[in-house]
Amino acid sequence: MTTLPPLLELRNISYSSPGQSSPLLEGVNFILREGRIGLIGPNGSGKTTLFQIIMGLLKADAGEILLQGKVMEQEKDFRKLRRKLGFLFQDSDDQLFSPTVLEDVAFGPLNLGASPEEAQKISISTLEHLGLKGFEERITHRLSGGEKKLVALATILSMQPKLLLLDEPSNNLDPTTRERLIKILRGLDQAHIIISHDLDFLASTCTQLYAIQDRQLVRCEDKQVHSHEHIHPYGDKPHQHGT
Ligand SMILES: Nc1ncnc2c1ncn2[C@@H]1O[C@H](COP(=O)(O)OP(=O)(O)O)[C@@H](O)[C@H]1O
Ligand SMILES: [Mg+2]
Predict the structure, then answer these.
(1) CATH of the domain at 118
(2) What is the pLDDT of residue 238?
(3) Is any ligand 1 atom within 6 A of the Cβ of residue 213?
(4) Which residue segment(s) compose the domain that 58 sits in?
């Protein structure tokens, strides 16, 4: 039986930020075959940097990135990689640049060679899938933070990536939108890596947890999915939760 190469592999990745004497990441190794990975680590530990390195937006000082067994060497390799990986930025304003939602969501498919009609069709169905039917002609920069986050996700999903890299997707979402995002992510077929400080969000959307610790990527073997008490207004009245 032949085994397929991993979807993504990092071999001995090291990186120093400009002007910093000690490396931010050192000898990072990671293999992703499939699945749903959560990534935690303190602020400034290099989580976003790691995503940027994987996408080829920053160049590692040492080490290799392999996509489906092939080493990414030149910019043209990373251009191909970027067609297969969807990167949701920490700040949606960095991701959305077209006047209307439909134009933003159609940009990716058009760039991948879809005809305007195909791109429109894919974009409308992606928006519908994310519960954003009717948002097509909305002015992107006037959307709320949560709406922008979902539209930014739509711009990625419309390209049908094999792997999603989501940088703090639940930040600043109201509880309803957060629950909606959890349902959406749980319903997707693609593998994903989610950076978050929100452990409950990761427990709901991921099956494995990794942490950046001492410049390395380490698997948290002792992850326990658990529930806990919480507080919210009117909690003493009979109520229902989203899930
Ligand atoms: N362009 C840059 N130039 C210099 N330092 C940077 C740059 N981008 C990020 N850094 C530094 O790299 C470190 C890691 O940043 P980042 O990857 O954004 O951390 P995280 O996402 O884990 O919070 C931080 O100390 C940050 O200040
Ligand atoms: Mg970050």
Answers:
(1) 3.40.50.300
(2) 52
(3) no
(4) 8-219
